Every structure is written in structure tokens, then in C-alpha cells.
Amino acid sequence: MNHEDPVLLHTEGRVRHLTLNRPRALNALNHAMVLRMAEALDAAEQDPGVTAVLLTGAGERGLCAGGDIRAVRDDAVAGGRASLDFWRDEYRLNARIARFPKPYIALMDGIVMGGGVGVSAHGSVRIVTERSRIAMPETGIGFVPDVGGTYLLGTAPGELGTHLALTGEAIGAADALLCGLADHFVPAQGLAALVADLGACTTPEAVTATAGRHARPAPGGVLAGHRAWIDSCYAADTVEEIIDRLTGHEAPAAKETAAIILAKAPTSLKVTLESVRRARRLGGLEAVLDQEYRVSTTAFAGPDLVEGVRAQIVDKDRDPRWNPAELSRVTPADVARHFAPLGDRELGLGPAPEAG
């Protein structure tokens, strides 16, 4: 095992370990990591000595902070297409994880955002800790939730997923469990014992039972107490009406949330709302990933992703200049073009898109 590899592989007992290994970059995903993970899953599936796969992140700060968005921005500025190739393989990996026939255990400890959600929350055994901070923060960088994020958020109870998609809010363990993004809470100090016990498991059923045996009630949680205003306000048909409902609601948290949303990219907000609503109707993950690839391809060619990453990551002035800068200037046609079929460039995981 080369400790400089971006994904470390080793086996303990009958569990194949995959460790994302870019700790200084919070294990941000790049194309090489995605391809290595896909190869590792293929090998693990075919190996009769492997009962389960376990995903972890190197370092103390988190599993994965997402994709390497600085590289994506550089690619967009240069007029390249490497990011589209990366997303194609990344989204295929997300679908592969969801359909993996052996238990796929993800330790969602620390920061888990964007692409990190894609390689963990589609797994079959998802563990969170008191250190977990989980988010799909794409609207803050002029992008739209992807990696199957709109599928996951679209299936969350009530309008919780819409709230998380538009705000990009980071949530802890209890709220991740509530939203269906995780399965078990295990205190961080108990992870080593969990991993050791998993290594002794010889059947998929034993893996599931072992994870459940280590689980504890998750402390805290915020969203359950906000369900009334979240479900009411986000049931509106448009982002503008959602903002109006939040602003006019008596709950202080609702008014604060309106201000948070208004700081995000207007085009991203409208496309994100439409993406989540469409994802609910599409039903299957593969069809949603196809849709996300269309949306990502269009967003990659627009001005807001480059500007959002500049403001948040490159210059860090936190003052993005969105184009257009106001919700009222984002037309239905602007939104619709993000969902247009790509012809021979389709991802092609699900059924062919219907015309119109």
C-alpha cells in the first residue's frame, strides 16, 4: 500500500477498506480517486473473501469536503471539458455504490459535503457521529446539488430536503438521521471498536447487525422543531413565494432563513428547486443522476460557478457577483434549458428523457 495514493486500500478480516487520502484538501475528490474507487468496488464484488466494503477519510477533519471545485473552476475558465468527464464517472460511481450487492459502510465522521455525500449517503450502512457536518452547499457557489443529492433530498420527509437544498445548511447526526441521509449514530470514540467488530463479520447479515449493536441515540437535532414552518413555507411553487412565506412567518428562524437563501445564486436557486421537484417525480436514482448531469453540464458553461468558486475559495472575499443578480431576472426559459436533453452526450443511466 502506497501511503501517497489518493485512495488507500487494505483488508481487515473480511472487510475491504477504502480510505480517501487527501487530508490536507479535506479528502476532496478528483477524477483519479473516483476511478480508483470504482476499480476497488469491482474487485471487492468479485472477491469471495470480501464480505463488505468500508469507506473512511484520512485525517481528523472529515470524510470528504466534496469535489475539487477549484480544479473545476480552472477547467471552466480554460474552456475545458475535463470536469464533465469527471462528473460522468463520479455519477456512475454514485449509482454503483447504491446498487453494490455487498454491505457498503460509510463512516460519515466530520465534514461530509457535496461529492462526499455522493460516496457515502448512497451506501447501505451509513454511520454518523457527534462530529458529523453534512451538507449540499452548491447554491452558495453558483452550482446545483448533484451526485444524487437531489434524489436524496427529494425523498426526505416533508420539505426538509428543499430547505437543505436551497440553503446549503450543514446538519448534524440527528438531523441526518431524520432526513434519511444516515442510518446509525455511533459516538466518535466508539468507531474503532465498531471497525474491529466489522472485521470479524463473515456474512452481510452480521455486518448489519453489528452496526446496529454499536448504534446509540443521536443527541441534539434542530430540524424536527422547525418542521411546521419548513413544510409550510417550502411548499410554495416558486423561490420568490418561498422567500415571501419565510419573510412573513412569525418564526424568527424562518425570517433568518430567507436572508440566507437570498445570498445564494439566483439561477442556482431556481434550478435547484426545479431539480428537487423533478427528482421526486422521476423516482429512481439513475434517472435523477441523468438529470443532474444535464443540469451540471449547463451550469458548468454559465458564469455563476466560476464566480462563486472565486468568491468562496480563490479570493475568499465572500462577495460573489451573480449573473443575473436578482431572482426576478431568472426566466422560466433560463431554468428549462438546464434540463434539455444532451443527445449523444447523455449520461445514460436511466430511461431516455422524454421530449419537452
UniProtKB/TrEMBL annotation:
Give the reaction(s) catalysed.
Answer: 3-hydroxy-2-methylpropanoyl-CoA + H2O = 3-hydroxy-2-methylpropanoate + CoA + H(+)
Q: Which InterPro entries does the protein's record reference?
A: ClpP/crotonase-like_dom_sf (IPR029045), ECH_dom (IPR045004), HIBYL-CoA-H (IPR032259)
What Enzyme Commission number(s) apply to this enzyme? 3.1.2.4
Superkingdom, natural source: Bacteria
Q: Which UniProt keywords apply?
A: Hydrolase
Question: Which is an annotated Pfam family here?
Answer: ECH_2
What sequence ranges are listed for the domain Enoyl-CoA hydratase/isomerase?
15-339
What CDD domains has UniProt attached to this entry? Answer: crotonase-like (cd06558)
State what protein this is by name.
3-hydroxyisobutyryl-CoA hydrolase
Q: Which organism is it from?
A: Streptomyces castrisilvae
Q: What is the lineage of its organism?
A: Bacteria, Bacillati, Actinomycetota, Actinomycetes, Kitasatosporales
